[in-house]
Amino acid sequence: MSHMQTPFDARLRAAAATIEQRLEALLDDTARPGEIARPERLMAAMRHAALAGGKRLRPFLALEATRLLGGPDEAGLRAGLAVELVHCYSLVHDDLPAMDDDDMRRGKPTVHKAFDDATAILVGDALLTLAFEVATQEGADASPAIRAALVAGLARASGLAGMVGGQMLDLAAEGRYGPRTLSEAEIRRLQAMKTGALLAFAAEAGAIAAGASAEDRARLLAYGRALGAAFQIADDILDREATAEALGKAVGKDAERGKGTLVDTLGMEAARAECDRLVAEAQAALAPFGERAGVLVEAARFTVARKA
Known about the structure:
By secondary structure, the protein is mainly alpha-helical.
């Protein structure tokens, strides 16, 4: 039986197609004004990392948050592209032998397998720095203050107290630096940093791009934090129940390494209930916007209902 596409599915796919087109344009071989050259191997590896993969949930959240708050699509797209480039960089580095040591990502060889370790490191570096270039691009829709706020927020979400710090905690959780058993609070902190911080910022970035008030920014950030926590629990459930073919990557690696998750700590049924609670929390953060927030409300449901 074929899957019937809902209006939300169509909207997500349309946004993903737009993001894909923008990424393709960003990552072609033609040097831009001010650039000396774009090395062919580096560009090929960057395209391998960033194109033709994923649902583009993070840029979708940025775009829809901008739309919700009355900002121009171009501003939301730029913010979303910056977040997605950081996300793609993080996957390339996470897959390296020194980190998670994965061979497959999105159904194809990881960058260090398709190219080599050194190229993969440089790909991550290049995608990260390109993200900040994109965030600072001038446009009639983005004031200098908005661009500065995007850069500051992106740095905070992706850096030492966000995604990078979370990866450090994740390595420690594997027992690399001595025996380590995480409490529930420690697992939640790790996940809020490694996965949640950037996903939460995607929603806030859309509010920033729209020039929203501090109050509305806080609402979108609260929504993003709850959604990010739900996303990680759903991911841990999929890691136990889905196949490698469905996910396009290896499954069961956390269990192999003895790395604690909320599925382990709470049990499967309680983890599902916590996922539902977090979705309700995300939706409640959007309540002041009423029906206008319908797409983002649906995005929270999609996060826990996805099968890959």
